[in-house]
Design goal:
alpha/beta; Aconitase, domain 3; 25 helices; Aconitase, domain 4; seven-stranded mixed beta sheet; five-stranded parallel beta sheet; 26 strands; single chain; about 20% strand
């Protein structure tokens, strides 16, 4: 690749893997990697089988694992594992089963399944983690995942690139988790929607890869499509065995970095010199406070783990804090420790960290997403408070009626000792950092690979034109109807469909639980049952990439959502299912909600909303790209993506 001046890393990756640009500016990209897990992948597999197009673009570039519920907690979750296990074996796909697995965004880089310059997608919103390695990695819904598995293509809408520079002197008790919370507090939970956050500055340069992954992991919590970082010697050291194994050149890895004169759409500067340990409050990630403002608040549970802070560096910090403060957690606190991968578990065992945790009265689990999304292994009860190193504090996230405060591992461990929220001082953390080396010497290597997988030697490229001829076409569903008003802002996917139902593989199940955790009265819930159109507040559908949210709305009879703004993944998921999102200006939203019509007509020919108001018939125009109109006409995206693959294949571009 010839180096050109003035380009961001994001632009360089696009230029290398761009197959086509659509009229609305969306980019059809050739994928390097597709990853899957047992929660969002089974429905993609079942749909592929139902469509009689159970094929994959390249078995060697697809990786699948059990991670969210590990091991299975009931029959439904066991069935999900059974589906991905059998399908992976059928296609010769490398699959990490129970005992050889880990939380996806920890084990993917650990196994060397991401390299600088890659483009990868997964049915998980925190896929943005892997941008820490100079890659473009994004969370998608199940239908986009399905299309990626079949075609090796992904459509990325136009993106801004926001540069975030962390400067100054980092206090010893301030960690990567504090940095990302400070950024989200500054720009808001939708401040980076349809944008790439490129992290840099001297503070980032000095972070370990594990700390860097904490930053990129939570880029999506500011609405970002992905977080990215430059490749440097820290990156290359982490990836060295993989680079050697694949015969790659380090110089090639460095070429993906942004040019010194690259232009950004926005630059955010954050001086960390006077920063203090931070925590979230209430149910939004941009409500951030100094930990000291919640000091002495009693807690019921402390949770240390997840794809954000469950790596060996995080466990070392937590163990050292516990050891320095007497080695016993408070008797009124449950402390759950979850190493993010089996490899991390083994390292923690060898180093004596698990002995410190168990001796302190902690419960140590094998790797799982578990309680992070309220599915297993540490779900909290109504009224309970959990201090957690996870990534979301949404209402009901770790258990209905519970409160989650997000913190760094150091604050979590200190809180477990005291029984109330608190943070260790700078002097204590200086001792912690001096005691251990936080730049882990444990990097991916052949010794980590415990699978018997062998690459598929005769990868057959699918004939997409033939596949397309055998598929049925879809059609518009029709979107007019009765209106339900729910104007709350930042309604997240956990409210639309609670995580405890995600083990179901029958989409009809979700309709009965639609908006179950949303603050609705019984009267409002009765009105919801008869509605076809939902009028919502800003940033509707934020949070997880789970496509279960649109499935729940559709099964409940809601085929159209009108709002001033949407979370990127939710909006994509709606159109991928042939469902409609309409974005209106704040002025038009005010007019619509003031008139409060009981029924609206959606005209997809003239792109207008019509309704009867007291003053007469009103019309509100809206925009819809040609691509999204085609998705609605096709009844969704799978057939459209296969048609696109057939076109590119015929042109020799695939």
């Amino acid at each position: 690749m010839t180096k050109e001046k003035g380009k961001t890393a994001f632009r360089k990756i696009l230029d290398a893997r761009l197959a086509k640009t659509l009229p609305d500016g969306s980019m059809v990209l050739r994928l390097s990697r597709v990853w899957g897990h047992e929660i969002t992948t089974p429905n993609a597999i079942l749909d592929m089988q139902e469509r009689e197009c159970d094929i994959v673009f390249d078995s060697n570039r697809i990786k699948v694992m059990i991670d969210h519920v590990n091991p299975a907690k009931d029959t439904a979750s066991a069935v999900q594992g059974q589906i991905v296990r059998g399908w992976s074996k059928k296609h010769g796909i490398e699959f990490l089963d129970v005992g050889r697995n880990g939380v996806c965004h920890a084990i993917i880089p650990e196994k060397g399944w991401v390299l600088p310059g890659d483009i990868g997608i997964m049915g998980d919103s925190h896929t943005c983690t892997h941008g820490a390695f100079g890659a473009l990695a994004a969370g998608v819904g199940t239908t986009e995942l399905e299309s990626g598995l079949i075609t090796g293509l992904w459509i990325c809408p136009p993106q801004r690139v926001i540069r975030v520079n962390f400067t100054g002197t980092l206090p010893a008790n301030v960690f990567a988790k504090d940095l990302i919370l400070a950024l989200i507090a500054k720009i808001g939970v939708k401040g980076a929607t349809n944008a790439i956050l490129e992290f840099g500055g001297p503070i980032v340069d000095g972070l370990s890869m594990e700390a860097r992954m904490t930053l990129t992991n939570m880029a999506v919590e500011a609405g970002a499509t992905s977080g990215m970082m430059a490749v440097d010697q820290t990156t290359l050291k982490y990836l060295a065995p993989i680079i050697r194994k694949n015969g790659l050149e380090e110089e090639e890895m460095l070429r993906w970095n942004s040019d010194p004169d690259a232009k950004y759409d926005r630059t955010v500067e954050i001086d960390v010199t006077d920063m203090v340990p931070l925590t979230t409050d209430q149910y939004s990630l941009d409500t951030v406070l100094p930990v000291s403002e919640l000091s002495s608040k009693p807690v019921n549970q402390v949770y240390i783990g997840s794809c954000t802070n469950g790596r060996i560096e995080d466990l070392r910090i937590a163990a050292e804090v516990i050891r320095l403060f007497g080695g016993r957690i408070h008797p009124d606190v449950r402390c759950v420790i979850v190493p993010a991968t089996q490899h991390v578990y083994n390292l923690a065992l060898e180093e004596g960290l698990l002995e410190i945790f168990s001796g302190a009265g902690c419960y140590v689990s094998g790797p799982t997403c578990g309680a992070c999304l309220g599915m297993s292994c540490g779900v909290i009860a109504p009224g309970e408070v959990c201090v957690s190193t996870t990534n979301r504090n949404f209402r009901g996230r770790m258990g209905k009626g519970g409160m989650v405060h997000l913190v760094s591992p150091a604050v979590a461990a200190f809180t477990a000792i005291r029984g109330v929220i608190g943070c260790p001082g700078i002097d204590v953390c200086q001792k912690v950092l001096k005691e251990k080396s936080w730049h882990s010497e444990e990097y991916p290597s052949e010794s980590v690979d415990l699978t018997d997988w062998e690459p598929v030697s005769d990868v057959a490229i699918p004939d997409y034109a033939t596949l397309l001829r055998g598929m049925k076409s879809g059609g518009n569903k029709g979107f007019s109807g009765a209106v339900f008003y729910f104007p709350a802002e930042n309604v997240d996917t956990d409210q639309i469909i609670p995580a405890k139902y995600l083990t179901a593989t029958d989409k009809a199940v979700f309709g009965g639980h639609c908006l179950e955790d949303a603050p609705l009265t019984l009267e409002e819930r009765e009105k919801l049952k008869g509605a076809q159109v939902l009028i919502a507040g800003a940033n509707f559908g934020c949070g997880s990439s789970r496509e279960h949210a649109p499935w729940a709305l559709e099964a409940a009879g809601i085929w159209c959502v009108i709002a001033p703004s949407f979370a990127r993944i939710f909006e994509n998921n709606m159109f991928a299912n042939g469902l409609l999102c309409i974005t209106l200006s704040d002025e038009m939203m005010t007019e619509l909600t003031t008139d409060a019509p009981g029924v609206v007509e959606i005209d997809l020919v003239s792109l207008a909303i019509r309704y009867q108001a007291e003053s007469g018939m009103k019309t509100l125009p809206f925009r819809l790209s040609e691509h999204r109109q085609e998705l609605l006409a096709s009844g969704g995206s799978v057939r459209k993506m296969i048609a696109l693959a057939a076109e590119l294949q015929a042109e020799g571009k695939l």
